[in-house]
Amino acid sequence: MKRVQSGVSSLAAIGALAAAIAAGGVFWGCGGDAGGLGEIPGDDVGIEVSDETGLETDVPDTAVTEAEPTDTGAAEAEPGDTGAPSDTSVPSDTSATSDTGAADDTGTATDTATATDTATATDTATATDTATASDTATAGDTGASSDTGTTDAATDTSVVLPTLSINDVSVSEGNVGTKSATFTVTLSSASTTPITVAYATADGTAQAASGDYVPASGSITFPAGSTSQAITVLIDGDVLHESDETFTVSLSSPSGATLADATGQGTITNDDAAPTFSITDVTSTEGNTGTKAFTFVVSMSAPSGTTTSVNYATADGTATSGSDYTAKTGALTFAPGSLSQTIDVLVIGDTTVEGDEHFNVNLSGAVNATIADNQGRGTIVNDDAATTMRTISIDDVTVTEGNTGTKTATFTVSLSGAATAPVTVAYATADGSATAAGAAAVGGADYVATSGTLSFAVGETSKTISVTINGDTLEEPDETFRVNLSAATGATIADGTGTGTITNDDAVPSISINDVTSTEGNFGLKSFTFTVTLSAASGKTVTLNYATANGTATAATAGPGGDYVSRSGILSFAPGETSKTIIISVIGDMTVEPNETFFVRLSAATNATIADNEGLGTITNDD
Question: Is the pLDDT of residue 117 over 90?
């Protein structure tokens, strides 16, 4: 008897197996049908070898699960049984699990399905593979074409990109050179790869072509891990008074991110003071006939970036409109950057021998500017007099006021040459910021008004005018008044206005507050009156803040429940006032307790200093 193992995977093995059977041997099936014993009688030549060998490339036969414990996988051959050759159930059996062969069926001896099982060659299991982000089909893998799990960052909408934002910036322009307006571009979260974005400035009310700022464009790159980058735009300084101006910095074309806030606004704040208007004086001869233009120049102290305007109107002095000149009113408008304009006033010529005459051109109602010199004087020089006619002028005087009594401001009136005949001229003072009839509460008059006539004898060249200045102790700005000449005879007036300046010599007053001590009473409210005092009267309004503060006494907002009622506010001293009071209500009780204290504190004084800023309130126990 011969024993042959089955489960071989080649034709040679099958041939050997057949030979063994023909020799009448017995074999053990050790392949897919484990443990099956097939006994073949030597005289049973009708037995045919089962063709269930798996050579037909059973797909998708999985040989691993083909044999079961009771499956012998072959038709049973018994002694004398010649029917086996017609048993065709094995060749078509494609699943070992459905083999119903008898227990001693030894057909599995030639079952070699696993030897050539090529099911994995066309394995399509990866067709629904969604796990790999960049899954590419391998040889024979037909699932890749329908793979829906790809998460390529270029097209996969599940990837969330960081966002870019730019802030707004405000910067004062300065007067010269440039300043930097630094915009910050922020990434919402760091990236593992570089991110880029383009930027460019654009005009708003600020104009790059007008020199408000330097245009800028380009791109910025965020290295991996970075979340912030800067864009610097240069701002050009100027001395133009103008409105605040704006421009923008816009982001575009981001790579690796999206735009959340793509526009940053740059605000250029004006830091230049409003310009001032001034007007010139004009002196010229009148002419004998027709009219002659007196051209007054109205100037701005600095160019402005906004449109400015000012009104003007002529006014009589010693010259009379209609006979000596033609009255005129109107308005001047200055375009941005303009510095001067002119006003022509027509003077009427004559042949009358007369003294010099004057009229004024007054400015008012300035828009986007202030007025530094509001009056232009037009002096009409007589050209009909003898060649020996002299001119008269008066000087300006400055004097400190003093604290008490009076001082004298002495003006000198001069002739251009010694008089060859008597010369007379009238004079009179006129208020400016200094007044001749000041209120007693603010120190009274600043000076004593005076008027009269000066007479020059032959050969004299100068005379004086004395004006009395009143001393005071008021801290105040410097003040001015004028002495005007008029109605000259035997001479003409070349400079008919002398300015007197009274300079302040008084220190800023100081502020103090007293202490108050009193009993509290048994019920109701009792007034503690604190006095706030200025060291000297001021010519300006003085203000300060006050507020109560706890000591050992406790404040109540109103009514019972505390020792006093808290209070705060502002004290205002009008010019000349030196004392104010603050009343604090103390709450009475019948509790036996120690004396208690609170404070009244002063702060934030204007036009004065604080010498003693704290008043102590002492509530003495009376229980």
Answer: no
Q: Which residue has the tokens 């600095």?
A: 302
pLDDT in tens, 396-441: 999 998 888 899 999 999 999 888 889 999 999 999 988 988 654 4
Token pair listed for 52: 């269930």
Secondary structure (3-state) at 63: helix
Cα 234 from Cα 180, distance rounded (Å): 5
Any idea what the Cα angle at residue 412 is, between residues 408 and 416, rounded to 5°? Answer: 180
Neighbours of 60 (CB within 10 A): 12
Q: Burial-class residue 535 by CB neighbours within 10 Å (0-12, 13-18, 19+).
A: middle
Distance of CA 363 to the CA centre of its chain: 39
Grouping H, G, I as helix, E, B as strand and the rest as coil, residue 48 is: coil
CA count, 13 A, side-chain hemisphere, 1: 9
Q: What is the DSSP letter of 556?
A: E
The amino acid sitting at 587 is I
Give me the pLDDT at residue 443, please: 61
> What pTM value is reported for the model?
0.34
Residues sharing a CB contact under 8 Å with residue 78, sequence separation 6 or more, in sequence order: none
Strands (E), 286-356: 291-300, 308-316, 329-334, 340-348
